[in-house]
Structures are given as structure tokens and as C-alpha cells.
Amino acid sequence: MNPQSLLASASINIGLALVVLSLFSVFKKQPSNAPVYYARRLAKRHHIPFDPPLTLRRFLPSVSWIPRAFRVTEDEIVQSSGLDALIIIRLFKFGIKFFLPCTLIGLVILLPVNYNGQDGPPVDYLSMDSLAISNIRKGSDRLWVHFTCLWLMSFYGLYLLYKEYKEILGKRIHQLQIIRHRPDQFTVLVRGIPLCTGHKARGCSVDHFFSKHHPYSYHSYQMMFNGSYLEDLLDQAKSTARKIEDLRKRSSVEKHNREFLLLCTNGEDSAKITLLEEKLQELSHRIHQLQCEDMLQDKELPVAFVIFKSRWGAALAAQSQQHSHPLLWTTEVAPEPRDVSWKNLAIPNRVLPLYKIGVILAATLLTIFFAVPVTAVQGIARFEKLKKWFPPAMAVQLIPGLSSIVTGYLPSVILNGFIYVIPFAMLGMAKLAGYVSKSKEELKACDMVFYFLVGNVFFLSLVSGSLLDEIGESVTHPKNFPSHLARAVSAQGDFFITYILTDGLSGFSLEILQPGLLLWDLIKSLTYRRGKEKKPYLYSLPYFRVIPVVSLAMLIGMVYALVAPLLLPFLICYFCLGYVVYINQIADVYEVTYETCGKYWPYIHHYILVAIILMQVTMIGLFGLKSKPAASICTVPLLLFSLLFNGYCKLRFYPTFRNYSIQGLICRCMDRMLLKMMNLIRRATSWDFVPRLQKIRIVRHFYGP
Description:
This is CSC1-like protein At3g54510 isoform X4. This protein has helices at residues 3-27, 34-37, 39-43, 65-71, 74-81, 83-115, 143-178, 203-213, 228-257, 259-290, 293-298, 311-318, 352-381, 383-389, 402-408, 410-431, 438-476, 481-491, 493-513, 515-526, 543-563, 568-588, 600-625, 629-652, 654-658, 662-684, 692-703; strands at 187-191, 218-225, 300-308, 330-333.
């Protein structure tokens, strides 16, 4: 890719971002668009101030929403949206913290070193390779500058990872303390419940088992039943209730507006309402019949929610094996009610591995088929080489400037278009894997999407681009293959610059504009929802889409931080714009549907560490290809240290994200018991007049010696 193509891509993306953000600032001021841009606030019935109608200010673009985003504190985000929403913001802040000093190093130190890598100015001033590591000649001592910067960036990244992990852990512990009174904190999900032979039911089996093995902490249970047969009836009842409501509203409007029309149609509407009400009563009667105890017993599932008297009792039961047979009486921490995936509770425990194997096979097939568009995109990006293999492509050059747009902007747009569909496909597969909560489905989807993007977008783009670029030279000069490969690796930097520009400027701008919802709202307003009250378009925050895509951008930035430092300034713009956009989306648009108390951060930590290790492995290979084996050997200890750091973080932080601390639960329980005891004593007599020795005895009775 030549500089003209890169300039064309940057110009188009910057221009499109400015236009889209200007439209957003104008559309957000219109009350008719409130269901799109203030969906969350409307759902909570918050007052939304708008400018008076027919004022010029209401139709002028503004940037007031940008400084407002930077004034939002982390405590406000946690209080309003939870710790999971803060994780998204901390991911963008991590990118800013890491790449800001890396950009200074890259622009001040690495770019001049690369530019003068041939012990003089480069021959081709217009080539992007003149600013990359490929411009440095073999065996040059300038590579030790890259070696030093590699160590500095790696240690700085590991330090930030440790600091972030420690801070998120503290916030998780604090958040768990805040939600300690929530019912799910006292509940355990039990699966694989055997049938009681005496009563031919599983409920008595649950009560007998936990009364025997957890006599002091067990409280009660609630069996689960297969309610799929009720879904059709409930859907019909909801549809009938909506029709009745619409007919009543229409009759009310006609009564106030057109009295003559009311006389003609009121009788028809009343008759329709009467028939629909009778149908609704019949459906309600059938639903109540199906919910009776005798009917439910036949639909009983081997699944139950078991309630305990204390949090530590629930934690002990959830984190221990209850039976010698590992498939019987399996327990886990119960998700909160809004997080439960109710349909998956009906999947038998024994067949869950088959579901997960099927999901893995489906994801593998999708990965293989996705290789076709990625290879085609690289063919378009490598237009100069593509002309030799496909001569009709030369027709693009007949229009001035078109080849720059085709090679610079079009490939990244096509690739981002395909990538947009992948997270939703992976989430659909994760839903079929049988997880009992939506949060686990999205966590699994995060993993699948990230490794899919790393394999297809990063590695396959690199390999396909290198093959198209180097296949001719490798056949004619096989001895020069290592040097050509090193140049091809660094040459892919310009393609990833266009990818970051398109994904960041255009992608984040379209995310905040929500053009799909705007178009859909307009169609509904002009057709079947005309004149009716608008409902907010409320959707959950798409963790499964945001986290993997942003993590991929971070991986690309870390790998190319030393190879092509020109990429780093674009990454700063990427993370700053993403930070501002998602502060706005979290505050006004997206709904919080569940709270995992920061369980997404261990996954993000792992993705960033993978990026750091790939950066080090890439530099080991490049030092070898540049005939600097000493630098390659000296980088190996850095790689080993990073792996040891990963192992340490797994031992130090990860267990607290996976399990609950029994010590903390018991101590807080003892605090509550002591408080109740003191209140009782105050009611009987004044605590101040109790002898000091007696106070010590009371405290020791509850806390031990």
C-alpha cells in the first residue's frame, strides 16, 4: 500500500467520523429521537431536558457531550451501571495509559532510527517501509534500540496489568459487600438430582439430602419445571392484551377528535374488545390449570434452587463436591434471576459435553469459511501485485484516485463489515452450549470471538498478504526468503493502520449514531406504529462484541509498536474516541441486565498478556531475520518472565474472581451477630453499665479467644 492509499483511507474515515458525530449531536437534541438516544433514562423515567422548539441551538452541532464524558467518575459508573460497565471503560483507559508513552517513544526514538536505518536517508522516500523496522539493514547495531524499547514497553505493560488487576480485585470485593443482601447470594443451583424412589418425586430428595448434610445452614428449596408448553399460551395472552390496549386507546382518541366516527365505529370496537377479553380470560384459565401442583409434578426437572440461611453456607455448598458420583448433586453459585438462562436448565447434565463439542465444531467451520473473505480483502489491498495475477483489475486505474480508495479504504471496510457479524454468530453458538446464565454465555462468546479475530483477522491477514506479496520473489530468489518475509511482516503495518482507522473512527461513530435503530424507528413511525406512544429501544451492553474487538486493536498495536511505530498515534485516537462513546452509551443507551462483579477482567488480562507475548515472539523472529542473534537470545528471558508473571497473577488474583472467600463471609456474619447481640443488651440495660470483664467474655463468646 502506497502513502496515497493510506492518505485516502485516513481522509475518508476522518471526514465520515466528523459528519456522523455532527449528525449525532443534532439528532440527540430532538425529542422524537429520545427512544434511541435516551433509552436507558426513559426506561428509568428520568427527566430529559430539551431545548425549546424552533430554536437555532437545537439544530446546530455541538461537542458538549465530549467534555461531559470526561467528567464522569468511576464511582458514578459503578453506582449507576455496575462494575462490569466500568470494566469496559477501564479497558479503554488501559489502552490510553499504555500507548501514550509508547507513542512518544515510537515517534521520538524509533521513527528516526528506522528512517536512517541504512546509515543514510532511504532511497524510496514515498515508501511506508522507510519508517518501519524493515528499513534497518542486517546486523545493524541500531536494532539494540528496538531491543531496549521492547524491554521498556514489556515491563511497563506488565506493571499496568498488575496494577489494574489489583485495583479491579479491590473493587470486586467492595461490590460483593454491597450486594451481600441480594437473594442470589444465599442461593445455590443444584443439578443432577436423583428421583426419590419412595415418593416418585425429586423435591423430597432435595430436602432430605440438604437437611442431612447441611443441617445448620440449609433453609429451603424451589424445584424447576419444564415450562416450554406454557410459552405459546403466554405469548398468545400477551398478544391479546396488547390488542385490547390498542383498541381502547384508539376508541379514546376517536372520542375526543371525531364524534361522528365514534358513533359508527364504537360498537364495532366494543364488540372486538369484549371478544378479546373473553379470549384472554380463557387463556388465563388454561394457564392456571397447567400450573396446578398435579400437572407440574409431571414436568419436574432434576434442577433446583436451594436457599441457605447464610452466605458462607451457600458458598460452602456451591464450592464443594456433594456426592461421590460427580454427575449427581452438582452445585454452583446461583445466578441472579435476571441473569438466568431458563431454557438451558432443561438440558440434562450428562449431555452438556456433547453440546459444547458441537459448538466447538461449528466455530471451527465458521473460522475456516471466514478465511475466504479475509484472503480476498488482502488481494484488494495488494493491488499492485494483484494486477500481475489478475490483469482485468488494471481497469480501476482508468479513474484518477480510484485505485487509492480501492486499496486504502475498501479492504478495511469489507473486513469490518464481516467482523461485525461474527460476535452475534458466536453468541448464538454460546447460547447453544447449555450455560445456565447469560453472563457465562457472553464470557464464552468473548473468548470465541477474540481467538477467532486473532486467527483470522491478524494471522490470516498477515499470511495471505505475505503470500501475495512475496510468492514471485521467493520462487526466483529462495535464498532471500527470510529477508523478504521480514519486509512482508512490517509491510502489513499500513493495512492495520487503515483497519484501526476504519474500526475506530467510522466504527465508534456509527456505534453512537445508531443508524439502524433510527431507520427502524422512522419506518415504524410512518407505518403500523403511527400515532402511538414510542417505547425505548433498550438493549444490554454488548460485552461479547466490545471486549474482543478492542482487545484485538490492542494486540495489533502492541505487535506493531516496534515494527511500525507510525501506527501508535492512530491507536491513541482509537482509544480516546472509544472511551468517550461508551461513556455516553453506558449512561444513556444500554441497560444493565446482569452483574458479575468484574469477572470480565481476568479475560481481558489474558488477552492483553497474549498481545505482550506475541510482541516479544515477533521481535525474537525479527532480530533473527535481521542477523542479530544476540538480541534474540537476550529477549528469551523477557518472554519467560512474562509467562511467570502470568502464572503469578493466576495464583494471586484469579481465585478470588472464581470463588468466594469463606473467611470474609464468616467475619461479616459474625459482625452482624455481634451487632444484634449488642442491640439486645441495650434494650435490657445500658451497655455502658456492663462491667468491662463481662464485655470481654461476650465478645470472646462470639469471636473465640
